[in-house]
Design brief:
alpha/beta, Rossmann fold, disordered N terminus
């Protein structure tokens, strides 16, 4: 049976993606990767698939995630579909969407959420909680730590309700078709973006490296894990 090859968190990161190293493609640059991800996501059925999955998250653990929050930043939140779903379910939450200027500039203002054009590697708009959904598996361990460190700067202390909500793929060691599909996706992530699929131990190491004190895996919904991560 195929197995995943784990890359230690402290190991040196490759200089660009496999495609870039072989062909000299510019796709390995951080800015280009985020732009490409945003373009593909916004222009394909991936967006509707991702948002339909979030409705399952709201149904299964929305109360535990969002009840009592006053403000939320959706990091790399695209056209705001996820943020609007949060506001519809929890009207007391003031939601901000952060994404690239070329994404935000094409989204009409709706008065429901606030849109901010920016770079998640440089700063994240402050809020009581930050949501980052199906983003981190596109990035290397080193870049995940940098992104999460910016998310941590944007939130208050745990005592004040501060947390980062991470929704992403969590692989396990079980066999079968699902595991084989996870392995294939792992290879695709490594080749195209330097990202990878991670198990819970991998995520725990990244959270710690980014400066967080604790986390809870609230729910596993298929391949997706729902984490509360605390400063």
């Amino acid at each position: 049976m195929a197995t995943r090859t784990k890359r230690p968190l402290c190991s040196p990161q490759p200089r660009g993606t496999a495609l870039r190293l072989r062909w000299g493609s510019p796709t390995g640059s951080r800015k280009t990767l985020w732009r490409r991800r945003s373009r593909i996501f916004m222009a394909s059925p991936l967006a509707s698939h991702d948002n339909s999955g979030f409705l399952t998250v709201l149904r299964e653990c929305g109360g535990a995630l969002f009840q009592g929050l006053e403000s939320l930043t959706d990091c790399c939140g695209g056209d705001g579909t996820t943020a609007r779903a949060v506001v519809e379910a929890f009207p007391q939450i003031k939601c901000t969407v952060l994404d690239l200027p070329k994404v935000i500039d094409n989204v009409p203002a709706d008065g429901v959420v606030n849109y901010v054009a920016g770079d998640m590697f440089k700063s994240v708009p402050p809020a009581q909680a930050v949501l980052i959904k199906l983003v981190l598996h596109h990035w290397s361990d080193e870049d995940c730590v940098k992104i999460l460190a910016q998310c941590k700067k944007a939130i208050p202390s745990r005592e004040e309700g501060g947390k980062v909500i991470v929704i992403d793929i969590v692989v396990d060691s079980s066999s079968g078709p699902t595991h084989e599909a996870e392995l294939l996706m792992d290879v695709a992530m490594m080749v195209m973006t330097n990202g990878r699929q991670r198990d819970e131990t991998d995520w725990s190491e990244i959270f710690t490296k980014a400066g967080f004190s604790d986390y809870k895996l609230l729910k596993k919904l298929g391949a997706r894990g729902v984490f509360d991560v605390y400063p």
